[in-house]
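User: Here's a structure from my thesis project, written as structure tokens. My advisor, Dr. K., wants to see whether a designed sequence matches the one we expressed. Can you design one independently, without my sequence as a hint?
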């Protein structure tokens, strides 16, 4: 795939030394410095504590096969095509028959299982599971294999479990041809009743595309269900934990919020396929999978095997938010299916308000009251005491303390009068029961136009706390729109830039790249977000995650395979802003009040009262080094040494990859500070963050 072709950095411009790339005193520059005044003596608005955050959606195999590290695909045979992920091994015709059955299942929410019938004893009579584009296994790491088994007629005495590198096979049923076995075990003590078996397996080698092979000893019938292979190495070593390398990248950003579970996945193609949070909590083995709405959305990336297991559900999302220090921001369906698909609408009945309904599951034809009640129940699940019905469910899952939910989103990316007609009673019902709850509303999928203007006007009249704006556009659009929020009202609704990413080719093009051109253009745009901290309260790049072998959308912030992961240049831009967020916006002025972005120089600044630093962010979108002279009127107690963090490349097509994860990554250096007038030279095509020790 072209998006992953490793790009070597182009040679630096002739005569440009490494010291200049990382920033050098302006005296060495050949042109006069551009004067910038950072008005330390005229501080602006506080910077929101949740200013820079994360957007999670289960697209690109972001959950199953990614952040959620279960290795077995379709572990409970509950998908529409019950054998997705599984293939029979016809071991010398030993496997006489197999079928998915519902006869005396484990339970009402897990009512399918695999029944094997073996006529002739054969060591290769059984099944294999392919995992999510293979199974990533690490040498000497521990994996818990578990399964429910029930023996039927005959004398089957054991189940053989093998983790192996697959051999070559042709069309039709899998053959027994295998590569090396990485781990093997045998399960005995089978009974005529359902029983869970569990064993720890430790591979003797590393493989990115291993598979699980299950074969039987003896003849007769054997029923299998809830087949799991789960790594012990999870974030915080939790039994149903998350993939630690991905979580670490997220935590390193110090995000202010985590928005989940999406995205269009909230809506579903139809209301029956919508995301229902109540189906994603409780016993993991009892959570019923559902088709992922991105499975066949794009012809060029047709993935009919893409399901949601909900092993990563709302409890785990809240837990992840807590783990990485982010405010949880759940987005809830407003009674509308995706308007790009069926556009199905739930009827608006007379809203019953905070006591509408008590059922824990939606009726077959839900009305708006159903969706309102789901929201009220979610708030109780997150924040309610153990004595409340939904709070008790949270406590039972192992989290006695409330999650301290402060905000929810009503609808994802809806637009038009249908959305506004549902939003108003929804918001009123939430506020009636939880008046302190902050609500995120939608301005639609486009950042302009008649529908956008109408929604923004109406939501402001209704005193919405946050209006969610989305923009996917060219890198040039981001640089040209750096002043987008300069003239927005300073009172009323705050802006949530909930989804944005520069598209190097075109929206939804499979050829988009996470190039430096895209990332530096986003960095330039973000100076405009920061300069308008009195209007913009939250912002997040989207989408967040993508599997290199199973993606549907490009570009994405973090890419991974079954064993490795890397941050893109866009990730490092987001990280530099989030980890240098500061506490108070400081106005930045140029001579003659030139606009931000004049001559492709973009700037913003904040005071960080926690560290006592003045933080200046500078984007030089030009092929030449650029000296700047910073004046800091009003600064006090200046330190002698500042820190510069620089993300730069003269190759605008530079990308990172699994093999070159640090091809483009921030570099740190120090510089001398002798007075409130600081000079510095910006590298060509660079984002530079200067931390200058000095109180205001």
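Assistant: Designed independently from the structure alone:
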């Amino acid at each position: 795939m072209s998006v992953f072709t490793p790009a070597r950095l182009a040679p630096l411009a002739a005569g440009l030394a490494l010291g200049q790339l990382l920033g050098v005193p302006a005296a060495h520059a050949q042109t006069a410095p551009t004067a910038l005044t950072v008005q330390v003596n005229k501080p602006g608005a506080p910077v929101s504590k949740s200013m820079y955050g994360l957007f999670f959606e289960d697209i690109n195999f972001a959950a199953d096969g990614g952040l959620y590290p279960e290795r077995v695909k379709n572990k409970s045979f509950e998908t529409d095509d019950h054998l997705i992920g599984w293939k029979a091994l016809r071991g010398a015709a030993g496997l006489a028959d197999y079928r998915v059955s519902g006869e005396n299942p484990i339970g009402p929410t897990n009512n399918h299982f695999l029944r094997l019938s073996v006529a002739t004893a054969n060591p290769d009579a059984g099944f294999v599971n392919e995992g999510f584009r293979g199974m990533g296994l690490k040498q000497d790491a521990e994996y818990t294999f578990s399964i429910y088994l029930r023996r039927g007629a005959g004398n089957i005495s054991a189940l053989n479990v093998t983790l192996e590198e697959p051999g070559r096979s042709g069309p039709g049923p899998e053959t027994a041809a295998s590569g090396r076995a990485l781990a093997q075990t045998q399960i005995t003590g089978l009974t005529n009743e359902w029983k869970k078996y569990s064993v720890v397996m430790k591979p003797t080698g590393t493989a990115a595309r291993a598979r699980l092979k299950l074969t039987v000893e003896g003849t007769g019938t054997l029923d299998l269900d809830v087949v799991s292979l789960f790594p012990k190495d999870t974030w915080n070593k939790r039994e149903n934990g998350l993939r630690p390398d991905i979580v670490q990248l997220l935590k390193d950003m110090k995000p202010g919020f985590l928005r989940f579970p999406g995205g269009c996945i909230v809506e579903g193609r139809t209301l029956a396929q919508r995301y229902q949070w109540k189906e994603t909590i409780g016993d993991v083995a009892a959570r019923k999978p559902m088709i992922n709405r991105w499975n066949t959305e794009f012809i060029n990336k047709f993935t009919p095997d893409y399901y949601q297991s909900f092993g990563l559900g709302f409890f785990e999302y809240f837990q992840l938010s807590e783990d990485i220090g982010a405010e949880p921001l759940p987005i809830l369906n407003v009674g509308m299916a995706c308007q790009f698909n069926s556009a199905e609408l739930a009827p608006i009945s007379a809203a019953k308000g905070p006591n509408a309904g008590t059922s824990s599951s939606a009726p077959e034809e839900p009305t708006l009251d159903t969706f309102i009640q789901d929201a009220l129940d979610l708030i109780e699940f997150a924040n309610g005491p153990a004595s409340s019905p939904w709070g008790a469910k949270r406590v039972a899952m192992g989290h006695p303390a409330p999650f301290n939910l402060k905000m929810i989103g009503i609808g994802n990316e809806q637009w038009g009068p249908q959305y506004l007609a549902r939003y108003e009673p929804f918001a009123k019902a939430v506020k009636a029961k939880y008046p302190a709850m902050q609500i995120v509303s939608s301005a639609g999928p486009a950042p302009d136009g008649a529908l956008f203007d109408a929604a923004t006007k109406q939501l402001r009249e209704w005193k919405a706390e946050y209006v969610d704006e989305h923009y996917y556009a060219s890198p040039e659009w981001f640089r040209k729109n750096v002043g987008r929020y300069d003239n927005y009202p300073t009172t009323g609704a705050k802006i949530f830039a909930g989804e944005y990413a520069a598209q190097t080719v075109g929206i939804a093009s499979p050829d988009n790249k996470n190039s430096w051109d895209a990332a530096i253009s986003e960095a330039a745009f973000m100076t405009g977000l920061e300069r308008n901290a009195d209007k913009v309260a939250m912002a997040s790049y989207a989408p967040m995650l993508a599997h290199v072998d199973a993606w549907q959308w490009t570009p994405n912030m973090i890419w991974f395979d079954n064993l490795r992961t890397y941050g893109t240049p866009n990730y490092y831009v987001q990280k530099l802003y989030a980890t240098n967020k500061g506490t108070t916006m400081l106005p930045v002025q140029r001579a003659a009040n030139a606009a931000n972005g004049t001559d492709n120089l973009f700037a913003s600044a904040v005071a960080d009262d926690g560290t006592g630093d003045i933080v200046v962010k500078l984007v030089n979108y030009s092929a030449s080094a650029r000296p700047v002279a910073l004046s800091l009127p009003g600064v006090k107690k200046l330190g002698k040494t500042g820190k510069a963090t620089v993300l730069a490349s003269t190759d605008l097509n530079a990308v990172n990859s699994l093999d070159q994860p640090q091809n483009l990554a921030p570099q740190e250096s120090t510089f001398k500070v002798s007075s409130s007038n600081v000079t510095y030279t910006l590298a060509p095509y660079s984002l530079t963050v200067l931390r200058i020790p000095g109180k205001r």
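When you compare it with your expressed construct, this may help: The CA atoms of residues 520 and 687 lie 7 Å apart.
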